[in-house]
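Possible regression after last week's pipeline update?

I re-ran a chain I had predicted before the update to compare outputs. Posting the input and the new output here so someone can diff against the archived version. Not blocking, just want to make sure nothing changed silently.
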Amino acid sequence: MKLALFDLDHTLLNTDSDHSWGEFLVSEGLVDPVRHRQINDQFYEDYKAGQLDPIAYNEFVFEFLTQNSNERLKQLHDLFMQKIIRPQMRPEGFKAIQHHQQLGHTLVGITATSDFITAPIFKEFGISEIIATNAEVKDGVYTGKVVGLPCYQQGKLVRLEQWLAGRNVSESWAYSDSINDRFLLEYADHAIAVNPDERLESLAKQQGWAIQDWSI
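New output (post-update):
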């Protein structure tokens, strides 16, 4: 197997889908705007600083999932895709995905953001294999809890290793924007820093990794 790993937020997307989902809920009048924005913004700052508590953040995000039917959540996610996500999908991301597809590589989307938010986005990019932080579902209903290990920092590498069990990888590529993904990038044979944050850019230069601009 030749493997291409794609981060989502600020890599394939020109935005952070998790934070944008919170802003979408506020703009649609679906949550308390003051409380939700304050908590959402603080978690986002924690993420950028590499200090996020992924369990606490995702349980905050999942609160809304427990309060709505699956049908209603799908309708809202469809609207989220239309209003927020599609305009932020990077053409260069599509090109990179297409390049690996043409070479017959196995593509995997790998993200700290929950599967609820990201699975439909990755699928629109043409990626069906997804490793994400998983929202627990019991009897077809979201519980508000995280199931398994969050797909964040070193946890991303652990989750990847679990997914790879029994598979043999002969060559790998990884694309990400964030210092939080340094472990994933260090794992790959070919690391590509996409519009990297300041710390990742410094590391990429030290390691001789490719740096690419996919911004729109």
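Follow-up from reviewer: compared with the archived run. The domain at 1-216 is CATH 3.40.50.1000 (Rossmann fold). Marking as no regression found.
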